[in-house]
């Protein structure tokens, strides 16, 4: 015979090990490090998984900003039934909603980023009763020009587009030439019998 508390602990441990008892919680996922060129728009991607079913009327999404230099944390964006961009601060008129609550997407877009936007962005999601769990963090680095890897990707995409256009032009020109050649051959075959006919009175 075992002590009640010890028996209960043993049963709970067994259920947890078997997967019957699962600890609920909100899990938020972000892209980590992001680089953006000064003056351009950048998407801060944030997705989440909740153990509770998504309720669009009660879910709350909040974004905050922690600068690189010592300073206070600033609110960037808030969502509760509808988007609430900031009415003041450095992000006023510079943030737009890019997420989909039912699609478990809490992303936002920063417009015309500035060097003062360098820092860490925190994405937090609450879906009552699932209000505890991890938060997502994105470290944004605003640069003067794109990095070599980004320039390489851009060059490859542009080069690929140009190559595709050139190939299409070559195919088009080749098809036209083949068509003209075929027409000439057909016309030649039709004219050939007329040339072979001779006047029987002429020797």
From TrEMBL:
Which terms are listed as keywords in the entry? Disulfide bond, Glycoprotein, Immunoglobulin domain, Membrane, Signal, Transmembrane, Transmembrane helix
Q: Signal sequence span per UniProt?
A: 1-17
Asked if Lyase is a keyword of the record, the answer is no
Which SMART domains does its entry note?
IG, IGv
Bilayer topology term: Single-pass type I membrane protein
The record lists the membrane-crossing segments as: 151-175
Question: Can you say where in the cell this protein is located?
Answer: Membrane
Ig-like domain: residues covered: 39-144
Q: What name goes with this protein?
A: Ig-like domain-containing protein
What is the organism field in this record?
A: Pagothenia borchgrevinki (Bald rockcod)
């Amino acid at each position: 015979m075992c002590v009640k508390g010890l028996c209960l602990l043993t049963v709970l441990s067994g259920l947890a090990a078997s997967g019957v008892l699962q600890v609920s919680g909100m899990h938020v996922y972000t892209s980590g490090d992001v680089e953006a060129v000064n003056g351009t728009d950048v998407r801060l991607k944030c997705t989440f998984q909740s153990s509770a079913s998504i309720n669009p009327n009660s879910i709350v999404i909040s974004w905050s900003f922690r600068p690189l230099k010592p300073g206070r944390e600033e609110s960037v964006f808030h969502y509760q039934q509808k988007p609430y961009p900031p009415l003041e601060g450095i992000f006023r008129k510079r943030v737009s909603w890019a997420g989909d609550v039912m699609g478990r997407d809490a992303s936002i877009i920063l417009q015309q980023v500035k060097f003062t936007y360098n820092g860490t962005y925190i994405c937090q999601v609450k879906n009552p009763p699932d209000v505890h769990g991890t938060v997502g963090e994105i470290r944004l680095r605003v640069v003067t020009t794109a990095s070599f890897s980004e320039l390489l990707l851009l060059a490859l995409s542009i080069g690929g587009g140009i190559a595709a256009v050139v190939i299409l032009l070559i195919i088009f020109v080749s098809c036209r030439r083949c068509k003209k050649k075929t027409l000439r051959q057909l016309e030649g075959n039709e004219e050939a019998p007329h040339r072979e006919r001779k006047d029987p009175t002429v020797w």
